[in-house]
Here is the input.
Amino acid sequence: MTSTELLDKLCGDSTRDTQTLTALLLAEQDRDAKRLILEFLGRINDYAHLAESGVRMSETCYRDYVSGNMPGQKPDAALLETFAGELRRAEAGNAEAQYIVAMHYLHGSFGLPDYAEAVSWLARAAEQGESRALYELGVCRMNGEGVPLDYHAALDCFTRAAEAGNTDAMLALASVYRGGRGIAADPQKTFYWYTRAAEAGNSYAFLNLGICTFNGSGTEANIERAIEYVERAESMGNADAKMLLKRMKRYYEEADLDAEECAARNRTEISD
Here is the structure.
């Protein structure tokens, strides 16, 4: 029996109990085959209760592990227990639990990521207005992960999440409108969503408001105000703000130009 055939047999319905696996181990003469059986036996209890909970990835984890596609460490028992509990809550309709389960699938907590399963749980949570799920679903749609790429559907997810107060979604909208990814660029909407994120206390939003205001993008060029925005970002601990602030002040002080002329001269040198 080849290793592949053995692996198929190990993942079959008839060989999940330890007695059958032990019998296979005793009967098998090939060293590599014995190793596969031992590894499978060593981890079967760790995944058993997940399989009983209906987790589709349980057998995939085994297959990936023994074929060398995932790290060899055993899954953390506490994490498995927590996940099993969240799964039960998710199946009962709890939106927060559905989001948590989706993130486990999205990040491959027990093996390789399962984007399709993640999207399925994100969609269920998003239907209940869970803003984090809406944001993550938008990211999946924007990147074509687990769902066909759809910029407009992604934009809708980001907008709904942002209107619900999700700062990550506000930043995503600002970025989409700034770069015109899949839609027409809109500097005014970019500035609007950076403003909303800044009002929520996001330092990266203040930094980008400074850049937009310096360049006169989506708002009137005003170097003094741009410097104020970047100073606010620096005061919040933004690592990029200090260097940018120094450059802005140098441009403002080195030339006898008004704010609009200075911005027009240097806007190509200061960008995100």
